[in-house]
Specification:
Elements (H helix, E strand, L loop, with lengths): L1 H16 L4 H12 L4 H7 L6 H40 L18 H15 L3 E2 L5 E3 H4 L25 E3 L5 H10 L7 E10 L11 E11 L4 H16 L5 E8 L2 E10 L16 E10 L1 H6 L8 E7 L1 H9 L12 H4 L3
Parallel strand pairs: 1-4
Antiparallel strand pairs: 2-3, 4-5, 5-9, 6-7, 7-8, 8-9
Helix pairs in contact: 1-4, 2-4, 3-4, 5-10
The structure holds zinc ion (ZN).
Amino acid sequence: MHQQLETLYAEALAELDAITDSQAVRAWEHKYLGQKGAVTLILRGIGQIPKEERAAFGKRANEIKEALAEAHARRETLVQEQELARDLEENAVDVTLPGRATPTGGLHPSTQTLRQLYDIWAEMGFQVYRSRDVETDETNFSLLNIPPHHPARDMWDTFYTTTPGVILRTHTSPGQIHAMRDLGQNGTQPIRVILPGMCYRYEQVTARSEMQFHQLEGLAIGRNIRMSDLKGTISAFARRMYGANAAVRYRASYFPFTEPSMEVDVECFLCGGKGCRVCKYAGWIEIAGAGMVHPVVLQNGGYDPTEWSGFAFGMGPERMTMNKHDINDIRYFWQNDLRFLEQF
Ligand SMILES: [Zn+2]
């Protein structure tokens, strides 16, 4: 019996020393110290020990039981600490690291400028009219008072399609014809629209010119619309776009579809007119071409030019964006380089 007890003690300790997880620690406790554990059973069987040995055996058995209980408690603590350390290592979180930003995307700088323009023109009563990107030669040129072989056609280098007479629009102005015919109801209704969209030109791509770019056209048709209405409207726009004190000047110009025609400058909003890199030391920045709708164009849109008149203007959202952010190369806009796009 004595020998059996000592062997059990040695085995139990050795087994306990090899344990590395708390589940095994619990199983060990059950096996040796539980109600039906090996040590418990030995203590219960103490009655079979001869009387004279019983006291010594009982003492030793209790010592062993206590020693095993202590060893168990130490092992349990050790294993729990090891498990915690492993867990911390495996699931380590460095709380000092900065949080990771969620990539959210953003609006293209041209889209931002276009939306700003939509808002301003909407406040002034202009609705958006969407015209087509693919045009006929007739609408893009002839109906806008630019007949075939007219020298003014040289102003626009055109992308032709394989279908004769079908081209990519070189400007948003053909939308004027569509808007007049769609909304004018045979020349009986006034119109006030903006026509934004992409335009295409068969041009050498350089820092100053792209083969595709946005324009934002404006068109107002009514009775008794005069040049002063155009100037007042453009000035009101400039104050909304460039601030309450924005000064505007008009320069005579030429477009086949307006008469008279002019170009519109705003006083440089960066240097206040003193002259800087953005305004090329002129103090003024061009923001639009404009004019009174040519009688031939009114007629092609279905209006009687003796009763109706109107004005039109065109703006370049990319040029406006470049001036605003001092961007010196228009090619950045459509290269889809995130290093550029993410700055807006
Ligand atoms: Zn300037």
